[in-house]
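Lecture 7, part B: from sequences to assemblies.

Below are the input chains for today's worked example.
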Amino acid sequence: DVSPKATSPSNSPHHRELLEGAEEPPPFVPPEVFQRLQTAESQDTSRKALTPIEEASRVNQRLKAKYEARLARLAPGQACQKTSLSLSLQRQMMENLIIAQARQDALQRKMEERRLRLQEEANRRFAASGTTTAEEREQRVIYANILEYEQDHDWPKQWKANLKKSPDDPTLVSGLVSYLLSCPDHPVMTLLRKHQYRVYNHLYPIISKGRLGSPQLHQGRPQTGFPSTFSIAYRNRAEPVSCGLLSRCSVLTYGSLPVVPDQLLSLCLLSFECLNTANSKDLCVASIEEAFFAPLWSPLLVLFRKVYKDREQAFECSMKRYRDASPEVVGVPLKLFPQDASGQQCSYPYQSAVQELKLLCNDCCPQRKLECIVRTLRNICVCAEDYRCHQEVDSPPKSAAISGADDLLPILSYVALRCDCPQLVSECAALEEFIHEGYLIGEEGYCLTSMQSALAYVESLHTGGALLCTAKLT
Amino acid sequence: MASGGGRSSSFKVVLLGEGCVGKTSVVLRYCENKFNDKHITTLQASFLTKKLNITGKRVNLAIWDTAGQERFHALGPIYYRDSNGAILVYDVTDEDSFLKVKNWVKELRKMLGNDICLCIVGNKIDLDKERHVAEEEAESRWEPGHYHTSAKLNKGIEELFLDLCKRMMETAQADERLLKGSGAGQSVPSRRGVQIVDDEPQAAAAGGLLFIWLTHTRTRTHTRIHTIIMPFPLN
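Predicted structure of the full complex, as structure tokens:
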């Protein structure tokens, strides 16, 4: 079962519905509702102080109420007193408003001065970077906003002081990050929401069309001015069949998407320099990524499933045909699975790895999905070791059960086949797109790549390898 | 972010070759100094890393094993894209495995051009008496890019990896110069890039930067300086 962290926006009931309705395209809410849902829980908690004008109008309302009460108590003959009461009320209300206006102006001037001062401070901080790009200018403005926020709120100072005392305390770091993510007014969070809305606004017209959303819907959309990215360009080379749709309909949507958590991270680091250590940065970016992707994964996945419909269908065909086949069919060596199920706790080999992999679709955060794939591969290694121990009881093994990718990939293909989840194809394609580039070269990246290879192999099974040729680079 | 201090770079290296040529043994020997051992990483030799120091520069290698069976041949591109290097292993006693390597060289050059540094490795030289790949060996033994190893006896393996690292570093530096020359160095995105597990976070940041530049050269400009020319005979 899914149990999103308490701080993540995936808590909203809307989101849970999306997860359960996995088969039919879930009915997505319009962007306005989406925005409301994202900010719903935060609105009531943060009531700002009244401005002088607001304050004055409240006072005036009370005065008026008093005046009306006194008027009601007046005897019918006291008409002139009524006039004087009414005049004095008007005078008082007017005075209140004028004073409030003056206070408001002064306050605004002061705020404006402060803003300018903070902006200068922000500019000074970035001065070393030389020429400025639009991004850098935006960053300066946001940094100035952060400085302003920190003057109005005490919590950043307190957290900074605490972290200074014990800078390597991981619980403190995660505490700060989750506190930050729960503050909707913080400029980092404002920016996060802004990006989320931008993405959702672009996704909504595509995904809300349900099954009718055919490629021509998106074709001809002008591409000029949109940020084109490396990954799109790459996809164009790698998968000529489906890339047309992806690059046309969603360059804008997710072209700049993977960099969002990074942009937010660098802002976090600007405001909390204490987070600038390797471990804290990892933790920070993981939390930001989760907060950012949790409400967006379902709509993004709908888009990906449209694009990869053919591949999912191919996967399903193979799955239906080979679901109950022996691991040997996909090339698993005999030594790596038990020939007779007796004495085994599972009904088929590598069942625990299959169960692990099935959990992938439940999560909404790319990072966690990636961890799920890593766990699946490790689980395979553990199972293989177990099976070998059963077969060679007498002689202690002198090498690892799995000698490398030659053994691993067939088993992974078998596990994918058994997983009964064609959606994996789109999930993994989306993961590759959105996962932090830093993970792609490491163990996580290797596991994802292996997973994708296994999926591609399974897809090719029912056609005898014909599909694979189209997946090759041209 | 942090700059200066020591630099470190991360390179992805794919391991290609038929089953039974000992490709995993070569890497195991190098990364863990083991020929055959059951106590290896959690992924059991499919993915290994190695940190080394070359002329004062820290280098992190991520070595990706691939499946050598014919049924998985078409999946190669999924593994080798974005690789900085490839180690193509054959068995000196098995001519078929050598022909397979020659085909891989052609494919990699066709797909990745000179973006990737290739190493052709004839393994199992300890079985010299049964050698079947002799004539090719004669013409390419002293050329860069072709190595002869024995994972069993730990011969030629250090040299192979050291040489590969140096070549990958040269290619990366050439990329960097190219980028600086074109003025593209101004707008380096704030991506964290390669996450390098290192004791010094500052160096990690610098390493990340380097990798980004690499990927951007590959995809945006399509121009790369050809520093390393594979002298291996293609036909």
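Note for the exam: Confidence is low (pLDDT under 50) at residues 1-6, 184-235 of chain B. Keep this in mind when comparing with the next example.
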